[in-house]
Design brief:
The structure is a single chain. The protein is of the alpha+beta class. It contains 8 helices and 21 strands. The protein folds into 2 domains: 223 residues, P-loop containing nucleotide triphosphate hydrolases (Rossmann fold, 3-Layer(aba) Sandwich), CATH 3.40.50; 118 residues, Nucleic acid-binding proteins (OB fold (Dihydrolipoamide Acetyltransferase, E2P), Beta Barrel), CATH 2.40.50.140. A hairpin with a 2-residue loop joins strand 9 and strand 10. The radius of gyration is 25 Å and the shape is globular.
Length: 355
């Protein structure tokens, strides 16, 4: 498989601050690759170096095998879509999309054909003469993407492009973007702090923290097998217990006095650790007796109804420690009431410990 992008030992410092600190990764041709992390972790700095707007302190950036260090942004085979979209309000949709083609000195007939074709592909056929100000947020988003893709870049860089949209439109555009990427076959590199965006759309996700990548993996494996406590806490919801490792190194004693058999993700743990349990891993109304399960009582505090995402907040074993439990959608749990004490269990493999 050919690599669209290959980054080696990339660093960017601003005086004493290391914004990007020795990042290594590659992106395969035609894939959707997301960089996920909190504000200030270095992801936008990384994107701006790939685009050519920032010069690295050191390291290598290769696009389809060609070194990009020292190459100006307008000569790199990439295009960038910003959160604010940067559409030209004085131009109609067709003129916005044609802007880059005109700068490439394409003929008028070629521009008209390309604009028409790209609008059909982004489901805006016939919108050439529409004013940008008359478009909905989702339509503006598609115009911005069309304007970039019509230039046939090797890589499309997207810097939190859905951030300004309302929740429902954002959910729709996640699916739309994934479909567009698949249809065009262009390599997408997507920056976001929203884990749902990264998990839904991406072939691979890099989780970034303090200028470094903590893990690069498929969305499924990031969620199921996080390698660090940061990834475990940042990707998806999770319940966290402070604990002390027992001598057998197969169990822990939590701060609340509960013994849990666990799976040690980090073998370097000496004494103190953090126990992570996903809300959907907790099983309610269980019978004791299975060998590979941890059992405990839960006192139901609140039921948070949200259709298929309904959850329960509960206290563990008469303590003040509150955890969240995802309810499967069946009638078996319909009778659970606030204040009720229920027996719960969680499989040992779902009790993951990190330093």
């Amino acid at each position: 498989m050919n690599h669209s992008l290959e980054i080696k030992e990339l660093k960017k410092s601003f005086q004493d601050f290391k914004a990007v600190d020795g990042v290594d990764f590659y992106v395969e041709e035609g894939k959707f690759f997301s960089i996920l992390g909190p504000s200030g972790c270095g992801k936008t700095t990384l994107l701006r170096m790939i685009a050519g707007f920032l010069e690295p302190t050191s390291g290598s950036i290769k696009i389809r095998g060609d070194e990009m260090i020292g190459i100006s942004p307008n000569k790199r085979p990439v295009n960038l879509v910003f959160q604010n979209l940067a559409l030209f309000p004085m131009m109609d949709v067709g003129e916005n999309i044609a802007f880059g083609l005109k700068r490439q000195n394409c003929s008028k007939s070629e521009i008209e054909e390309k604009v028409k074709n790209i609008l059909e592909k982004v489901h805006l056929g016939g919108y050439e003469r529409k004013n940008v100000s008359d478009l909905s947020g989702g339509q503006k988003q598609r115009v911005a993407i069309a304007r970039s893709l019509v230039l046939e870049p090797s890589i499309l860089l997207l810097d939190e492009p859905l951030g300004a949209l309302d929740l429902k439109l954002r959910e729709q555009m996640k699916i739309e973007l994934k479909k567009l990427q698949h249809e065009f076959g262009t390599t997408f590199i997507y920056i976001t702090h929203d884990q749902s965006e990264a998990l839904v759309m991406s072939d691979k996700v890099a989780v970034m923290n303090n200028g470094k990548f903590e893990q690069i993996d498929t969305p499924e494996n990031l969620y199921a097998n996080p390698k660090t406590s940061f990834v475990a806490s940042f990707v998806g919801e999770t319940n966290i217990f402070e604990a002390r490792l027992n001598e057998d190194r197969k169990s822990v004693l939590t701060k609340e006095g509960m013994n849990f058999k666990v799976f040690l993700v980090d073998e370097k743990i000496q004494t103190f650790c953090k126990l992570f349990i996903r809300p959907e891993a907790v099983v309610l109304l269980v019978d004791d007796g299975m060998e590979d399960m941890n059992y405990f009582d839960l006192t139901i505090k609140t039921i948070l109804f949200d259709g298929s995402n309904t959850k329960v907040l509960a206290n563990v074993d008469k303590s003040d420690h509150e955890i969240m439990v995802s309810l499967p959608q069946n009638r078996r749990f319909a009778h659970i009431k606030e204040g009720e004490v229920v027996r719960a269990g969680v499989h040992v493999s779902d009790c993951k410990c990190y330093e």
